[in-house]
C-alpha cells in the first residue's frame, strides 16, 4: 500500500466556496481512518500533514457525486493539522462554536441538543458543573475496586489458556460493562447497545443509522421515564432527579444528556485498548519497559493516548475573521485533525518515538478546551487499572501467528486481535 | 510570578492537579482547592504548565511585573 506523501498528491479541483483559495483544496480521506493498514505506527502515513512546510489551513471540499459521510458539512471544511491551530479551534470560544456537533438525532427529526457537547459557553458551564462530579477523581476512586475486580475476573477466564482475542473478548466488553454499571443500564442490553452504536457511527448509510437512532432514543426515553418513577443510586437516575441552577431538568435536557453519554460511553475505550495491545504486541520493547518498571504505567497510558488519536472534532466559525492570511466566513466548518496535533514536531520532541515516560504530554486525544472529554478521567483510570493487573498476571505476549493485524487508524479500529503467551 | 484561580468557575477536570498535584490540590469533590498562590522559585514552569492544562482557562498566570501571561486575552 502506498500513501500520498506530498501536498501535490492530495490536491483536488472540486467546487469550493469563493473565499477559499484553490491552492488549499485537498482530499485527505487516506488519513481519516477509513482505510486499514498494517504498520506498527498506523498513524504514520499522515505524519507529514503537520510538517512545518504544510500550509496552516487546508480545505476539504465535498467530493461531487460521492455520498460520503452524511454528517459532513455540504460546503466542505477547513482542515486544521498543526497543534497550535487545533488548540485554538478547540479553545477559542469567541470565534468557534460547537452547535450542531454530533447531532445525529436530527436525522430522525429529533430537536433536542447533545448535552453538553453541542452547547456553547456560557450555557455549557452549568451542564459541565452538573455532570463532572460523577466523572471526577473523587467519585472515580470509589469505583477502583469494582474495576480491578472486573479486570481480574475477565483475566481469570483466559490467563491459563495462554490466548485471548483482546479486541473482541476484552476491549469490546470491559469499558462498556463499567459504563453500563455506572449509568444503571440493564446488563442484557449489552449486545443491542453495541449493535446500535455500530450502525450509528460506522455504517455510513442513512437507513441503518436512522433505524438505530430510533431504537436508541425510544429506549432511552423509556428508561428515563422508568427512573422517574423508580429512582436508584445510578447516574441516569441522578440526572433525571437532579437540579440545574435550582430547577429540575427539562425533558429535552434529560434526553439530551443521557443520549450524549450513551453515544460517548461505548466504543472509545474499546478502540483504545485494542490499539494499545496491538502496539505492545508488535513492539515488544514497550512491554519490556513497562514490565520492568510498572511505575511507568500512568505516563505510558498518556503516550498510548497521544499516539492513538482515535477521533477528531470540529467547530463552526461564529463570525468573519482573518486567520493565517485567509479570510474565514461566519458559518465555515473547521475539522481538526488530531493526529496532526499529536505528532506535531513543533510540540512534541521525536513525535514518532513511543516514549512511555514522556512528560509533559498534553495531547489532543480527549480534545481540548471546555469540551474536553467528560469521561477522560474514567478512561484514564480504566486503562491504568487494566495495565496494572495485566502486567501483574500475564507474561510477554505476541500476536497469534497468522492473525490479521491490520487496523483502521481511528475509532473503527480492530474487530479481532488474538494474542498468545507461554503458559 | 503569581497564580490566580477563578475557583468558583472550576468544573473539576482536574488537569492542573494531574500536572502538579502539590501546587493544585483538589477538595473532596474533586474541584481545585486553592484560589491561587505565589510561585516559589524553580516551580514557574510547572505552575505555568498546570495553568495551561486547564480546559476552562480559569487559572491566570501573572508575571513579576503584573502582566497576565496566560490565558491569552
UniProtKB/TrEMBL annotation, chain A:
InterPro entries in UniProt: Cyt_P450, Cyt_P450_B, Cyt_P450_sf
Highest taxon in the source lineage: Bacteria
Similarity section: Belongs to the cytochrome P450 family.
Name of protein: Cytochrome P450
Organism encoding this protein: Sphingomonas natans
UniProtKB/TrEMBL annotation, chain B:
Gene3D superfamilies per the UniProt record, alphabetical: 3.30.70.20
Protein name: Ferredoxin
